[in-house]
Amino acid sequence: EIVMTQSPATLSVSPGESATLSCRASQTVSSNLAWYQQKPGQAPRLLMSGASTRATGIPARFSGSGSGTEFTLTISSLQSEDFAIYYCQQYNNWPPWTFGQGTKVEIK
Amino acid sequence: QFQLVQSGGEVKKPGASVKVSCKASGYTFTNYGISWVRQAPGQGLEWVGWVSAHNGNTNYAQKVQGRVTMTTDTSTNTAYMELRSLRSDDTAVYYCARERGIAVRAFDIWGQGTMVIVSS
User: Fold this and answer.
1) Terminal CA-CA length for chain B
2) SS3 content of chain B, % helix, strand, coil (to 5)
3) How far apart are CA B105 and CA B120, in angstroms?
C-alpha cells in the first residue's frame, strides 16, 4: 500500500498571502496525484488531477506541481473561501487508492 | 448538471448490514466507475472500494474485503454499497464518487454523503 504523507498538518495564513502544501508518497506514483478541498459538512471537491491540471471551474490561484514522490499545492493570494482542509490522493497503484491525512489551512 | 444523490442516514446495531445507494444523473452512467470513500468523525478520507458501471467489476479495500459488496443497476443509474457485520469503527460518512476516467482516476463528482452510525 502506498502511504501518502502531507505536511504541515495545519497551516495558518493571512488572507491575501500564499500557502504551500506538501504531499509525499512512499513510492513513486508518477503524476497520478489528485488534490481535493473539503469544507466542514461538505463533500470533498476535486481541485487538481495529474498533479498539475486544474479541474473545471477551479481558479488559477490554485497550482500544483511535482511528480514521482514529491508534490506541492500552492494557493496564491488566499481568499476567505479557501480556508478548508486539503487532501492529496494517489491513483497510480491499487488497491487501495490512498489519501494523505490532510492539511488544514486556517486563518491566521 | 452532473450529480450523484445518495440515500439518507442510517443507524444500525453492531453485526447488522447497511445498504447505501447513489443515483447518478447528467452523464452516461455506464462510461464511468464509482468509488466509495468513507470518513469517520473528525478523521480523513479512506477509500473503501470501486465498482465499474460498465461491467460490474469490483475492487475492495482489504479492510472491508469479505464484508462489502458493491453493485450497480444500469436501468436506474444507481450504484449500491452493502456493508455487512457492521462494527463501531464502520461509523462514518460514506461518499460515492465518480472516477473521472480510465487514464485519470481522480474523483470528479461526489455525492452528498450518507452518515452511517453503528451503535448498540
Assistant:
1) 40
2) 5, 50, 45
3) 37
Beta strand B18-25 with B46-52: parallel, antiparallel or unpaired?
A: unpaired
Mean pLDDT of the A79-108 span: 96
| Per-residue model confidence as pLDDT tens digits over B86-119 | 999 999 999 999 998 888 889 999 999 999 999 9
- Assess A46–B contact: CB distance below 8 Å, yes or no: yes
How far does the CA of residue A76 sit from the closest CA of chain B (Å)?
A: 23
Is B70:B80 a contact under the CB 8 Å cutoff? yes
DSSP track, A24-53: EESS--TT-EEEEEE-TTS--EEEEETTTE
Instruction: Return the amino acid letter for A96.
Output: P
Out of B23-32, B39-48, B96-105, which region has the weakest mean confidence (pLDDT)?
B96-105
- Which neighbouring-strand residues pair with B95? B37
Cβ of A95 within 8 Å of Cβ of B61? The answer is yes
Q: Nearest to residue A103, comparing CAs of A2, A11, A3, A4?
A: A11
CA distance A30 to A64: 14
With CA atoms as reference, the chain B residue closest to A89 would be B106
A2 pLDDT higher than 90: yes
